Amino acid sequence: MAQAIPPLPDTLPADPLPLVAAWLAEAARAVRNSTSMTLATVGADGRPAARMVICRGFDAARGSFVFYTDRDSAKGAELAARPWAALVFHWDVVERQVRVAGPVTDVADAESDAYWASRPPDARAAAAASEQSRPLPSRAALLARIAEVTARAQGGEVARPKRWGGYRVWAERVELWVGQPGRAHDRARWIRPLTRHGDGYAGGAWSGTRLMP
Ligand SMILES: Cc1cc2nc3c(=O)[nH]c(=O)nc-3n(C[C@H](O)[C@H](O)[C@H](O)COP(=O)(O)O)c2cc1C
């Protein structure tokens, strides 16, 4: 029989981020692709858009989540117009959902370079060849572009295109949800003030509230 999934602590922790870290670690043991998350952005026209991306970094001390993409993609254009995002992780087998929302900043070039260097060669070539979200006449055209990028590198490293890099979502709101028997699910939300600090944000004290599910 499946193990019962514990509810949130009766007394909510002052800071939700250590719990987020623990949930991410447990999800990594329990499911494939545990770092996949839905990223929602809003366009200049005020309309929302959502898609999956992979969380490539979680900083529990500062409360930030990093993903990498093409800055010239649809999401990149939306973030340039409105640098705010919402994230959702959902792990069905542990009946947990994590929601995050807050402002977004660019990851520094040196950090994007380091992550780019860690990617396998075929992933680098594919990312360099794909002007993400632009029309493509055929799949063959994409494969030809990848072959061209690979040939141009002549067995060397494919350089990170300037348009490709990371974004950091700063948690201003965190909501944790856990499924419970009889649909008496458990849910709490934490909010904190964020102020600009260096190239990112600094967070004030969290305020947590249990919510009806
Ligand atoms: C599980 C999964 C993970 C993905 N991870 C990424 C990612 O980390 N970065 C990325 O740019 N696209 C990723 N994608 C593709 C995006 O969902 C999306 O199709 C692409 O980024 C274009 O989105 P846009 O046109 O809204 O910018 C992923 C797709 C799936 C299904």
Bound molecule kinds, no repeats: flavin mononucleotide
Question: What name does the CATH topology carry?
Answer: Pnp Oxidase, Chain A
State the order of secondary-structure elements, H for helix, E for strand.
HEEEEHEEHHHEEEEEE
The end-to-end distance, rounded to whole angstroms, is: 25 Å
Task: Please identify the top-level CATH class.
Answer: Mainly Beta
Which architecture does the CATH hierarchy give at level 2? Roll
Summed up:
By secondary structure, the protein is of the alpha+beta class.
Could you characterize what this model shows?
With 213 residues, this protein is of the alpha+beta class. The chain has one domain (17-118, 162-210): Pnp Oxidase, Chain A. Helices cover 26% and strands 35% of the residues. It has five helices and twelve strands. The chain has helices spanning 17-30, 74-81, 109-118, 121-129, 139-153; strands at residues 36-42, 48-54, 57-59, 64-70, 84-91, 96-106, 164-170, 173-178, 186-191, 194-197, 200-203, 207-210. The strands form two sheets. Strands 1, 2, 3, 4, 5, 6, 7, 8, 9 and 12 form a ten-stranded antiparallel sheet that branches. Strand 8 and strand 9 form a beta hairpin. Helix 4 (121-129) crosses helix 5. It starts with 16 loop residues before the first helix and ends with a strand. Flavin mononucleotide binds next to strand 2, strand 4 and helix 2. The site of flavin mononucleotide has 15 residues, from strand 2, strand 4 and helix 2.
List keywords for this structure.
213 residues, two-stranded antiparallel ribbon, binds flavin mononucleotide, Pnp Oxidase, Chain A, 12 strands, alpha+beta
